[in-house]
Predict the 3D structure of the following.
Amino acid sequence: MRASHALRWLAGGILVLWYGVFLRMETTEKSMVRALIVQPNRSGWAVQLLYQFPEAAADASDAVAEIRSCSAEDATLPLALHKAERELPKAANYRLCEYLLFDETASQTDVLELEEFLQTESVSRLSARVLFVAGIGKLAEETPPGGLPGGGAEPEETDAAPETLPGALLQAAEDTAAWAPHLYECAAGAVIPILKIEENGVTWQKESCLLTAQGSTRLSPNETAMAQLLQERTMPVEFALEGETVTLRRCVVSVEAEGNGFAVTLTGQRRAGTPPVAESVCRQLEALCEETIVRAWQSGADLLWLGAVRALKEGPGAFFTTKNACPEVRASVKMLDL
């Protein structure tokens, strides 16, 4: 009995010790990286890390902590990232890194290079949302080497940290995340939201960037809203049309192969109590839908996977890509009566 009792106490002690080591490693000894900013330049790559300071628990994404930034440059992406990590007050932890921010001049090659790199690193955030940022240089100007004002000295911990530009940028990324594609979705072409750093903060631009292997195409606010609708990424969407602003609360997109082309049907629903949509407005939406699909196709993106739709109907031999001429598209808009 004494031996059994001693073994129980020993097992309990080992368990408590293990929990203590686990909690020590996973909470207070990490710098929680919330966003990774990359910017290719003439000399290689510039990298910035937005991280929580003071350090927060690894599972507490809403912890009250000031968001700070540290940066580094080097000839290659791995070297630049590892150099930036050395500027952090504690070891980097990417568990809460949900946003990858690129300079607005980045190409799809740059995005795919980062994706390939992350597959081999502990960062491994292939599900992170991708956004473009205009004016990244202003963030670097505000942050001295080491990411901490005053020559790298650590600030005193406070109950509520004041708003900073890195914090405002992270908040803007969180607010825009629903419209942003995941990193693994960018290989086939993606509509990427644009944030802009200004003197009075960070704003979301109603325009977006269509990023494909052929290059970067700027989409107007109406084209951006239509592209988001066609991809059924998020709702509601707003269109500033001639004579009226239309907001669709919900919309169902259906695609059918029709002869040598395709029929696209948009069935939209507005908020209850909203006046009926005029036929002229529906015609404008139809024209906008067709123009957006064609422009995206010519830029190298098949927003509706028309090639796959054709292959499902006629077999794999009928599959085609954006290297072919854009097929004829006929759009039809219907509004549900509430």
The first strand starts at residue 30 and ends at 41. DSSP finds eight helices and 14 strands in the chain.
